[in-house]
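Instructor's aside before we start: the two examples that follow are unrelated to each other. I chose them only because their records fit on one page, so don't look for a connection. First example below.
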Amino acid sequence: MTKLQIRMRQVDQVKDFVDLLSKYPYEMDLVSGRYTIDAKSLLGIYSLDLSNPLTLVIYSDSCEELLTQLHALLPDCIV
């Protein structure tokens, strides 16, 4: 399992984020406070408070390619 703090500041980033995650077979969640949603759910992400950092939980230990693509997509990504 890999955890990563991310921040999405623009609406376009949310769609690109979901499109990227949908290419990978493993399960992923986004956590904001006490709320946990499927990270591949566009509507779920829009229900969260995007002004605060979110925790992306990736249920795989071999996700280096995804992490590289996330850093390119979200420059504000915090490891």
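Example two begins here.
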Amino acid sequence: MEIERKFLVKKENLPENLEQYPCKVIEQGYLCTEPVVRIRKSNDNYYLTYKSKGLLAREEYNLPLTKEAYEHLKLKADGIVISKVRYVIPEKDGLSIELDVFKAPYEGLLLAEVEFPSEEAAHAYQPPSWFGEDVTYSTEYHNSTLSRKNIN
């Protein structure tokens, strides 16, 4: 079960020296958006992911792929293949902030996600001051939605 909250972040509010934190270069495409079936390259690791419906909490299953299988499925992705850099920033109470810095065509979009052990912990969470609007309950900022947007 994935239980997470998601927040917009403004560039001027970013923590200093992001490069001090571990990061992953991520590329992901969607084979289906209802239910969500995604392929992802994370550095040199490849996955096929299934996600159930939901906003705050939803089932998620990750299966390993080979590079060849990923490249084959990437050609079948619907819409935009999303590219981003994900920084993992330590947070209070043993949590981690995953800060996604998107590349073109979403350059400038910054999303912070925090995963929780329970829905109660998610509801009780007080985000740091550099977080912006809470978009947890908005499907507009799901990567699966972003992959289908018309970019001109």
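The chain has one domain: 2-146.
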